[in-house]
C-alpha cells in the first residue's frame, strides 16, 4: 500500500475547500451526488474522493460497480499530498464500505488534524438506519475511535444507538447518549438528524404550545454544542426541531443534510443556525420530491407487494430520487431556515 | 464481461438528463469536475460515469488512482439498464483512457441512438493537443467509427487533424476537413474549439474591420452546421469566433467548453448561439483564473525551468486550476455570449 501523507509540504488550509469522502452513484442522488453539488452551489471548492462507483443506490435491489479499495485510496491521498493538494479547511466523510478503507481515511484525517487542529471535520457515521446495519460490523469500533477527531457528527438515531449503546426512547436516554458523545468520545458538536418521536420523548420537548397537534406525525432532530471549558452549568446547548414526516422512504436525505450542515456551519455558536438551514432546505426538497413522485403514481412503500414484483420497487426508487438539481435556487437562497427550540432544561 | 443493454425496458428519454462519461479527478477542474457542475447549474440532471478516478490531472507530472476497466463499465451500464435508468436525452463523452473502455461505451451509445435517434450526442474526441497524442493510438479508429453517431463534435485543431488527416493551416484545409467530417463521417454539427490563427488563415476570416488589430494574439473557434437535405448551395453554415489568447496553459478548458456547448445546444440552427455562449463563458472564467493565478506569482510556462525544479510546475498547476466554482454566477447567468461572424463565402 502506498504510504499516505509523507510529502514534505505542510500547506496552509484553503478557507473555502472541503475534502469530501463518500460514495458515488452514476444515476440518482445519494452520497456525493447528493452532497457535492449543494456545497459547490454554496461556494465551496469540493475535492471529491469516491469510495465506490456504483450504478445507483442499493435501495433499487440491483446495483453494481467498483469499490475503491484501500490501496487505491492510499495512492490517491499520497499523490494529493505530494502535489500540495491536501489543503482542505473542512473534511466531510460519509459512506465508507469497509474497515480497511476506513482505516486509510482515518489515518489521513488524523494527520490533517494534527497538522491543522482548526480543520472542521464533519463525520457522518453512515452505518445503518431503522435498526439495520448496512456496513461491515468491524467499521463500528473504527468510527468510535475516530470520533475524537470530529468537530461535528450527524448520526441518525440508530447510529447513535450503535455508537453509544443507548436506545433513544426518552429524554433521559437522549441525555445519556449526548453525554457519552460529548464527554466520553469528545465530540464538540452533535446533530442527531432524526429520531422517531415517541410519546414519552414528545412530552419532554419544550415545543411552544400550538406548534404541532397531537396527531402530527413528527421526527425529532436535535443539535447539541458542548459548552466551552470554564463555562458553568449545563454541559451543552441543545436545540430541538420537529419535522413533519413525509410518507415513504427517500434515499440520500442524510447525505444532503450533512453536506448542508457543514456548508453552513460557522464555528462555535453556529450549530443551531446551520442545523435549522439544513433541516428547512432538506424538508423543502423532500416535499417537492414527494409531490413530484406522486404525480400519476400511487404505489406506496409496501415490502410484500415489492417482493411479488421487483419492478414495482424499482419504479418507486426512480420516482423518489431527490430533486436536488431542480431545487438549486432553494439551496443557494438559504431562505428555508427553520427555527429550533432551545431545550432549556435539558440537562437538569 | 457483463453484457450491457439487455434489459427489457425501452424507456422514454428524460428531456433534462445528460449521461456524461469522462474522467474524474479528486482535486481540480478537468474532465467531469469541469463539466458536471456547470451542466447541473444550468438545470441538467447529470448521470456521471467516471472513466478514471485520479488524484489530479496529469499536467502535475505526478498523479494516480484507479481506471474504471471495461468490464466495470459494462457492469455499471448493465445495472443502469436493468433499473430503467439509462434514459438520457443527451450524452456527453470526454476522456476515455483506452480502446477497450471506448468499445464498451460506443456499444452503449449505438444502442441508445438506435432506440432513440433523437438523442443529442456530443462527442468530444479527447485524444491530444498541440501535436501530442495522450491516449492509446488504437482509440483513434474507434472514434472515427463512432463519429456517425454524434450530433455535435468538439475537437481541437489537433484532433481534427488526427481524425481527418488534414492539417489546419489555411481556409482551404479547414474546408477540406469540415467537408470530410460532415460528408465523409456524417457529423451534422462540428465545433473546432481552437485553431492557432496563422497569417494565411487570418486573412481569410471575414472579421469586420477593426475587430482585432494585426498584433492581437488570437485563436480561432469555428462552428459549422451541415445544411439539411434539399437545401441548395453551401454545404454548411459556418461561424467564426476570434478569441484573445491568454498566456499560459490551462487544463480542463476543452472539457468545460464541451459541457457548455451541450448544455446550451438547442437543435438545428442553434449551434452558433451555443458556441458563442460557451466561448464567452469559458473566456471569462479563463481571464479570472489567469488574474487569480498571477497574484503574487510570476512563474511562467517554461519547460526548461520546470525540468530543473519539479515543484515549480506543480505550483503553477495548482494556481491554474479553473475557477469554476467562483464563477457559478457567470455560468448560470448566460450573460457572456460572444457573437460569431457568419463566414459567408466559406464554401465558395
From TrEMBL, chains A, B:
Naturally occurring in which organism (per UniProt): Exidia glandulosa HHB12029
Entry keywords, A to Z: ATP-binding, Kinase, Nucleotide-binding, Transferase
Pfam short name (any one): Phos_pyr_kin
Gene Ontology cellular component annotations, sorted alphabetically: cytosol
Lineage: Eukaryota, Fungi, Dikarya, Basidiomycota, Agaricomycotina
Any one GO biological process: pyridoxal 5'-phosphate salvage
Family: Belongs to the pyridoxine kinase family.
EC id: 2.7.1.35
Domain Pyridoxamine kinase/Phosphomethylpyrimidine kinase: from-to ranges: 89-193
Protein name: pyridoxal kinase
GO MF annotations in UniProt: ATP binding; pyridoxal kinase activity
PANTHER family from the UniProt entry: PYRIDOXAL KINASE
Amino acid at each position: 500500500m502506498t504510504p499516505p501523507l509523507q510529502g514534505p509540504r505542510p500547506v496552509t488550509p484553503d478557507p473555502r475547500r472541503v475534502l469530501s469522502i463518500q460514495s458515488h452513484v452514476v444515476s440518482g442522488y445519494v452520497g456525493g451526488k447528493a452532497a457535492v453539488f449543494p456545497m459547490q452551489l454554496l461556494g465551496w471548492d469540493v475535492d471529491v474522493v469516491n469510495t465506490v462507483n456504483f450504478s445507483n443506490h442499493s435501495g433499487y435491489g440491483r446495483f453494481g460497480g467498483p469499490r475503491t479499495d484501500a490501496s487505491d485510496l492510499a495512492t490517491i491521498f499520497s499523490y494529493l499530498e505530494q502535489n500540495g493538494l491536501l489543503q482542505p479547511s473542512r473534511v466531510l466523510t460519509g459512506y465508507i464500505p469497509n474497515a480497511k478503507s476506513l482505516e486509510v481515511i482515518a489515518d489521513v484525517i488524523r494527520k490533517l488534524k494534527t497538522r491543522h487542529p482548526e480543520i472542521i471535520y464533519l463525520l457522518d457515521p453512515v452505518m445503518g438506519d431503522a435498526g439495520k446495519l448496512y456496513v461491515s460490523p468491524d467499521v463500528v469500533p473504527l468510527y468510535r475511535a475516530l470520533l475524537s477527531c470530529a468537530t461535528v457528527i450527524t448520526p441518525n438515531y440508530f447510529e447513535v444507538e450503535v455508537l453509544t449503546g443507548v436506545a433513544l426512547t426518552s429524554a433521559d436516554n437522549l441525555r445519556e447518549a449526548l453525554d457519552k458523545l460529548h464527554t466520553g468520545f469528545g465530540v464538540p458538536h452533535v446533530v442527531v438528524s432524526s429520531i422517531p418521536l415517541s410519546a414519552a420523548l414528545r412530552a419532554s420537548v419544550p415545543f411552544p404550545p400550538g406548534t404541532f397537534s397531537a396527531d402530527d406525525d413528527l421526527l425529532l432532530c436535535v443539535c447539541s454544542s458542548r459548552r466551552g471549558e470554564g463555562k458553568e452549568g449545563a454541559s451543552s446547548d441543545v436545540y430541538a426541531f420537529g419535522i413533519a414526516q413525509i410518507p415513504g422512504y427517500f434515499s440520500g436525505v442524510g447525505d444532503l443534510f450533512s453536506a448542508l450542515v457543514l456548508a453552513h456551519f460557522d464555528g462555535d455558536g453556529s450549530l443551531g443556525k446551520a442545523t435549522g438551514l439544513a433541516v428547512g432546505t432538506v424538508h423543502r426538497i423532500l416535499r417537492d420530491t414527494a409531490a413530484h413522485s406522486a404525480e400519476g403514481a400511487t404505489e406506496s412503500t409496501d415490502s410484500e407487494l415489492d417482493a411479488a414484483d421487483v419492478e414495482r420497487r424499482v419504479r418507486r426508487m426512480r420516482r423518489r430520487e431527490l430533486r436536488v438539481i431542480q431545487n438549486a435556487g432553494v439551496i443557494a437562497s438559504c431562505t428555508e431556515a427553520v427555527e429550533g427550540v432551545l431545550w432549556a432544561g435539558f440537562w437538569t
